[in-house]
Amino acid sequence: MSRFNLAIIGGGLVGASLALALQAGARARGWKILLIEPFAPGDSFQPSYDARSSALSFGTRQIYERLGLWQGISRRAEPIRQIQVSDRGRFGATRLDAIEEGVPALGYVVENAWLGQCLWQGLDSEVVSWRCPAEVTAMQPLGDGYRLSLNDETQVDCDLAVLADGGRSGLREQLGIHVNQRPYHQSALIANITPGEAHCGQAFERFTDDGPMALLPLPENRCALVWTRAGMDARRLAELDERSFLDELQGVFGYRLGALRQVGARHLYPLALIEAQEQVRPHLVVLGNAAHSLHPIAGQGFNLSLRDVQSLADGLLAGPDTPGDLATLNAYRERQRLDQDLTVGFSDKVTRLFGTAQPLVATGRNLGLLGLDLLPPAKRWFARQAMGLGTRPDLQGKA
């Protein structure tokens, strides 16, 4: 029976980031970390027009700089130099600018495959072991940890199990960890777009009566589209031919980037706010989308998870020699409670405020966008939320 100090179930962006955040301290303590992942990482990065991407906040850049990873990630990270926020058919609008905020970029857009490649290449095989492709089929709590049963009929024991297997975690359900779920009755249509003009590092948040959309800058003058619509309407858009789709998108987005020229593969994701009612138990942590899954339009989900990762790693490395004691895990949960509550609340309120056509609400949000331009302190607060710094007391005043 193999035994590890930590077993991270899910070797995606969150799980791999945790292994990297722990790696140096684990080496010093003699800890052994196991990453269990059903999908094997590729041997090399393969550029793709249709690659899925993530928006990384400026605060996330600071975390990866601390881990010594940013230089590699930045090779294919497209800076967001401006964010334009507008409300279709109304005069309210605001613009956030990196120069005004005193930062090189408000955030960055990185292809997930490239980010994953950078994370996996940074792992030290003497500290972090892989079981891949492999899945955990059952988790049995022990007095001093967990016993994990894998789909190859082997078992592994660990002092601390970290559940980072995504928002639809079957293991979370198996353990009896209930979730609070608030459906948005919308789906996100995700695709890459080629505009007719250079995006110049501009990101666009466009709110309409039918739902919000975001267009984020990518390398090679592509843009990542996140278009939120009601479920049936989203499916209709996904099934349109390319020209009809671009025409409809153009009608909603306008000509801020000229005529839209190309759209790649389109994918649909039903949207809901999901929060686990328990994030820690003795010898167990729930992390990433398994802990909280947010609406993508505000771009906060992965960035919040990475702040959780940093806080958890710091707490574990400052704690007992054997990870998993409940006092250390509860302390981590309390440290992150305010950050999670504020970020989830910010994301949810933005989604609801800008996702309704009710006249009074629409008028109020229109005046709110105007107010951001007229009131610099309010605009700076909004910018710091977008940059992932508003809930980080340790970074206040450093951007």
Automatic annotation (TrEMBL):
Entry keyword annotation includes Ribonucleoprotein? no
Question: What's the Enzyme Commission number for this chain?
Answer: 1.14.13.-
- Which cofactors does this gene product need? FAD
Recorded metabolic or biological pathway in which this protein acts: Cofactor biosynthesis; ubiquinone biosynthesis
Swiss-Prot/TrEMBL keywords: FAD, Flavoprotein, Monooxygenase, Oxidoreductase
Give GO BP annotations, semicolon-separated: ubiquinone biosynthetic process
The terms under GO molecular function for this entry are:
2-octaprenyl-6-methoxyphenol hydroxylase activity; FAD binding
Note the superkingdom of the native organism.
Bacteria
Extract the NCBIfam families matched here.
PRK05732.1, Ubi-OHases, UbiH
As for family, the record states:
Belongs to the UbiH/COQ6 family.
Q: What is this protein called?
A: 2-octaprenyl-6-methoxyphenyl hydroxylase
Q: Which organism is it from?
A: Pseudomonas bharatica CSV86
